[in-house]
């Protein structure tokens, strides 16, 4: 609608400056020293929601970081959309690889560089500004609720308790999430699914203390060597995961679904050039898009042990550690896979070491039916502002709370992500294109309009 576009164009500089202020808050949920920053960020979102026109906004404490709830109810008989997002961000390390401060946002070549710019402050803030647009132009047709949490990046350990205790408060007809990506502005897409997650940590212990590698090397098992061999054994020559039972519950994608995925444009050379690699790697028999969407994976997220300081120290370490994650597809249970991972590393340990392992967090895969009213409303909204029908794709990331929301609230989720896979999520120099930010604010009001019309 022209009135929306005019309002957004008039206020776009203010929208951006407000986002930059949010990005300056180091709301890192994984680090205890940022507890005050988490509260500050929650309070900032509360203030922005109130300014945007929400009638009620409250900050709910949890056993961890607070949850921001807001609402604009125009008529209880009208459809209600629950917007979910998160204000917490990943740690910024390694800091030396950032070209600018991770919490000192800069705009270069039309891109906002800062931690959280895309994941997820920039994307959830599009919804706050969409609410403002609808309220200030007196065109809001649906009820809108917000649930913005501060623990998504650490597995949302307290969200389940909050949702279970506030089902009536969160009651809605659909849940709308912008925490995903699209192929590009030229080729818009909608994620119809996200993968599940199982995340564990493994500790391998050899001798009871660090040893002189000259005196003891060759006679005592080196925990780093053993751990490296254990990890390497988890994939065979076809990059197929070797953990017994790992694939037991995997739902094999149909030929039709693989055909739909193949319709998405993919430039392998551009993909490799962007990543600075010469060859791609993955499970034999599947394309790159299939490997990152419809197939489960096992990845090493971190490994350490022994001496890591400046210079050399000839040490045979007492311990070695690794953080390992599995991305899961529909029908795989994160609980079952986590148990398999923990048991596997204990079973394959040689006699010269002992192994302990524990779970960090996990979550289930989620699929959105493309014949749902919510998906149709999202697809129509994107087609309106992009002048192209979006391609349905399967996302490779995980949003652990999706299955939880559907179980507790009994409603479906639709994804409307405006980020790009190249936005360096969880990496140094995270970015969000200004064009994507503004396009999201332009598109979201159409979702609300379409959802109301299709729900009649």
Question: Could you characterize what this model shows?
Answer:
- It is a single chain.
- The strands form five sheets. A six-stranded mixed beta sheet has the order 1-2-6-3-7-17, sandwiched between helices. A four-stranded antiparallel beta sheet has the order 11-13-9-14. It has a three-stranded antiparallel beta sheet with strand order 4-5-18.
- Strand 1 (56-60) and strand 2 (67-72) form a beta hairpin.
- It has 13 helices and 18 strands.
- The protein is an alpha+beta fold and 456 residues long.
- The longest helix has 22 residues, at 2-23.
- It has helices spanning 2-23, 35-52, 121-136, 159-165, 213-216, 223-232, 255-262, 268-275, 288-291, 334-347, 373-386, 401-409, 434-454; strands spanning 56-60, 67-72, 80-86, 106-108, 111-113, 143-149, 174-177, 189-194, 196-205, 211-212, 297-305, 315-316, 319-328, 354-363, 366-367, 391-394, 413-415, 431-433.
- The model has no long low-confidence stretch (mean pLDDT 96).
- 43% of the residues are buried.
- Helix 1 (2-23) crosses helix 13, helix 2 runs parallel beside helix 3 and helix 11 (373-386) crosses helix 13 (434-454).
- The chain has two domains: 2-194 and 365-454, 3-Layer(aba) Sandwich (Aminopeptidase); 196-250 and 296-363, 2-Layer Sandwich (Alpha-Beta Plaits).
- It is globular and about 80 Å long.
